[in-house]
């Protein structure tokens, strides 16, 4: 059976995760703060499973603290009521659909 080509590592380029984070950080400098690190950890502790997966009956551990209403569209950055936990694929899907708006 043929094997898939190995992903090419280019250490001089940021990983996709890093690039995603940098795009967020470029829009909102708050992402780089200790306060956000704390808010993110608190959100993931409060809601350890992905909210979007839970809504369709799946149980997936969340790794991303997301703003329900995007900050760019007027959502409150610091309001815990505007935070939800998502897994990476769900977060990417949500971000992509927001970009398409
Ligand atoms: Zn998910």
Automatic annotation (TrEMBL):
UniProt keyword list: Endonuclease, Hydrolase, Nuclease
UniProt keyword Isomerase, yes or no: no
Highest taxon in the source lineage: Bacteria
All copies of domain HNH nuclease, residue ranges: 38-92
One GO cellular component term noted in the UniProt record for this chain: cytosol
Gene3D superfamilies with a match to the protein in the record: 1.10.30.50
Coiled coil: none
Pfam families cross-referenced by the UniProt entry: HNH
Molecular-function annotations in GO: endonuclease activity; hydrolase activity; nucleic acid binding; zinc ion binding
SMART domains associated with the record: HNHc (SM00507)
Region listing for Disordered, in residue ranges: 1-33
Family annotation (PANTHER family): HNH NUCLEASE YAJD-RELATED (PTHR41286:SF1)
Membership in a protein family: Belongs to the HNH nuclease family.
Name under which the protein is recorded: Putative HNH nuclease YajD
Species assigned in the record: Hymenobacter setariae
């Amino acid at each position: 059976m043929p094997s898939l080509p190995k992903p090419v590592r280019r250490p001089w380029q940021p990983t996709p995760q890093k690039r995603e984070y940098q795009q967020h950080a470029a829009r909102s400098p708050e992402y780089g703060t200790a306060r956000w690190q704390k808010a993110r950890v608190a959100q993931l502790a409060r809601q350890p499973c992905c909210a979007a997966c839970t809504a369709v009956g799946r149980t997936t551990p969340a790794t991303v603290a997301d703003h329900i209403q995007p900050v760019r569209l007027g959502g409150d950055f610091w309001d815990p009521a505007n935070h939800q936990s998502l897994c990476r694929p769900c977060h990417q899907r949500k971000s992509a659909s927001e970009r398409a708006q």
